[in-house]
Design brief:
By secondary structure, the chain is an alpha+beta fold. The protein has helices at 2-6, 10-16, 26-30, 33-45, 77-81, 122-139; strands at residues 51-55, 60-62, 65-67, 72-76, 140-144, 151-152, 158-159, 165-169. It has one domain (2-169): Cytochrome p450, CATH 1.10.630. The protein contains 6 helices and 8 strands; from the N terminus they run H-H-H-H-E-E-E-E-H-H-E-E-E-E. The model has no long low-confidence stretch (mean pLDDT 88). It is found in: Membrane. Keywords: Heme, Iron, Membrane, Metal-binding, Monooxygenase, Oxidoreductase, Transmembrane, Transmembrane helix.
Length: 172
């Protein structure tokens, strides 16, 4: 994700249009299309939540099993967002899939949930994430301490050593 953001001129263009301590405007945030595509792809590959329980509203059969009405069913975000039917090469990190201007089929990309129970903080989260990214890219040069660090875990990927980075201030 860091590499994807550093290779794109979007943040640099926004930074160069601002005085050193000038705050972002709403128009600046709206220009961060690539940054948001990187964030969306990161949330697709590593969802911020594992899943959620839902109650079966009717009896149904799945994979040879009958699930009675009223049973709690656990639905996982990860399996939904890595479905090759909707995401070509689902294990590949590819922000361009969110740059095509086409919406995702309903309920295939759900880091904030969907439908009437969608997270009401989705747009606030978008604003906070993009502002954070802009400030981190603008104010610091990033350097990974362990560039080949292993990722552990299956349910939630975790960097083996905690992803240590050196942050070098861009402005003194």
């Amino acid at each position: 994700m860091r590499r994807s953001l550093q290779l794109n001129p979007e943040q640099l263009e926004i930074s160069e249009s601002k005085k050193p301590e000038e705050l972002l405007s709403w128009n600046d945030v709206q220009k961060m299309k690539y940054a948001w595509a990187v964030v969306c792809e990161a949330m697709r590959v590593v969802p911020p939540v594992l899943g959620t329980f839902r109650e079966a509203i009717t009896d149904f059969s799945y994979a040879g099993y009958t699930v009675p009405k009223g049973w709690k069913v656990f639905w996982t975000v990860n399996t939904t967002q890595r479905n090759p039917e909707y995401f070509q090469e689902p294990n590949k990190f590819d922000p361009s899939r969110f740059m095509k201007g086409e919406g995702m089929p309903l309920y295939t990309y759900v880091p904030f949930g969907g439908g009437p129970r969608m997270c009401p903080g989705k747009e606030y989260a978008r604003l906070a994430i993009l502002t954070f990214i802009h400030n981190m890219v603008k104010k610091f040069k990033w350097e990974l301490v362990e560039p080949n660090e292993k990722i552990l875990g299956s349910m939630m990927p975790l960097p083996e050593k905690g992803l240590p980075v050196h942050l070098h201030p861009r402005y003194v």
